[in-house]
């Protein structure tokens, strides 16, 4: 039989690989997501050396794909199975299994599988690596995961490709959920450091006194109870250190950080030895760096050190053209990993997504799709399935609020016109061209009406 590569392309969809010997005893197992094991109630090491049929209540020698392949020597592909764990929960999987043949003898089998998530564990999908191989360095995003057709985002993607190979520091500025972590990980994975660790620390989440030892490490005896402990700087050796919420560093630590970056070395707390560093520092802030500097919350010299390259991420509200593709992308994403299939959204849902102001940016959009998957009762997402605050925003449509009976017709029409224009301007983030397009009037007429109603 001639082997064609096309026949195996579908294997890239699978997440896990398992290899058995000729008796069905597991000799290798690699999973993309350890959370799957939590659901089964097992640890990775529990698998090695055990027979394939010991893990699920309803898996027997008769219905196990591995046992079938071992017995018959022929591959089975895309087999869907519902397996019952020792805990009694049902796990849905799909797998393709191939025999391993040596000198015409079946010596084992290899199984590629994928696990479908249910509404109960949909949350675990958040940290699922899109790129299975890259997860080994502690990341789950690459540049391919950055969905956008917005020109500014395209420029950012080009820029990160260029700068990834250098060692310059990068400062990412963006509001919550705009993709700072995603950009930082993509840079790491584009760089020659991709084989090294990506160490991420949220400077705002660790108390200042602990943050110092977390970053720089400690030496035994330097203070009561201290041990020899490498800090995150050392742990990031050969890779990237991502300082998230760098704006919350206190001034004392800012000085220490500046020194470490300038001298490319650190000293553990209580230590007397300089430790040279080969790391790249990427930092992120959700507050405008210029404002931080002018308010003296970020030292100017540190700002220049951290931001040799600065990347400003646009709000989702400023890139509304991306909403539809992000919606499709996330529907596909959940469809690919879950035991339910959503074919699309009702027209009013799409309209609502486009109008909404997205204060939580792309994370909020992703969560909205997740909520919809949780609530959906049919194969299409309806207004009933999306988060309440989005529905309420949509209901604030002026048409629902104006009561013409209390005004003369002229007044009511004018008030309605004013509210509608102001609502569209708000929704389009003040962009006159786009608001005019949506209102179906010329830009000049819109400007005239904005002056008339004092909407500038
Ligand atoms: N361009 C994009 N395409 C697809 N998904 C995106 C994009 N940008 C962000 N996301 C998704 O949005 C979520 C938030 O992204 P990320 O964690 O990178 O944001 P952040 O700026 O670090 O947010 P925060 O300030 O709240 O920490 C993630 O689930 C990420 O996958
Ligand atoms: Mg973040």
Describe how the helices and strands are arranged.
Blueprint: E1 16-21, E2 26-30, H1 35-40, H2 65-72, E3 76-84, E4 90-102, E5 105-116, H3 151-163, E6 170-173, H4 180-190, E7 198-202, H5 208-216, E8 217-218, E9 229-230, H6 232-235, E10 240-244, H7 251-263, E11 265-267, E12 274-276, E13 280-285, H8 289-294, H9 300-306, E14 309-312, H10 323-337, E15 344-345, H11 347-355, H12 361-375, E16 380-381, H13 388-395, H14 409-427, H15 432-439, H16 443-452
Parallel strand pairs: 6-13, 6-14, 7-10, 10-13, 15-16
Antiparallel strand pairs: 1-2, 1-5, 3-4, 4-5, 8-9, 11-12
Helix pairs in contact: 7-9, 10-12, 14-15, 15-16
The protein binds adenosine-5'-triphosphate (ATP) and magnesium ion (MG).
Structure characterization notes:
The chain has helices at 35-40, 65-72, 151-163, 180-190, 208-216, 232-235, 251-263, 289-294, 300-306, 323-337, 347-355, 361-375, 388-395, 409-427, 432-439, 443-452; strands at residues 16-21, 26-30, 76-84, 90-102, 105-116, 170-173, 198-202, 217-218, 229-230, 240-244, 265-267, 274-276, 280-285, 309-312, 344-345, 380-381. It is of the alpha/beta class and 456 residues long. It folds into 4 domains: 5-116, Beta-Lactamase; 134-312, P-loop containing nucleotide triphosphate hydrolases (Rossmann fold), CATH 3.40.50; 317-395, Helicase, Ruva Protein, domain 3, CATH 1.10.8.60; 398-452, Arc Repressor Mutant, subunit A (Orthogonal Bundle), CATH 1.10.10. It has a 5-stranded antiparallel β-sheet. Strands 7-10-13-6-14 form a 5-stranded parallel β-sheet. It has a two-stranded antiparallel ribbon with strand order 8-9. The chain is flat, with a radius of gyration of 28 Å. It binds adenosine-5'-triphosphate (ATP) and magnesium ion. Magnesium ion is lined by residues 180-181, 244.
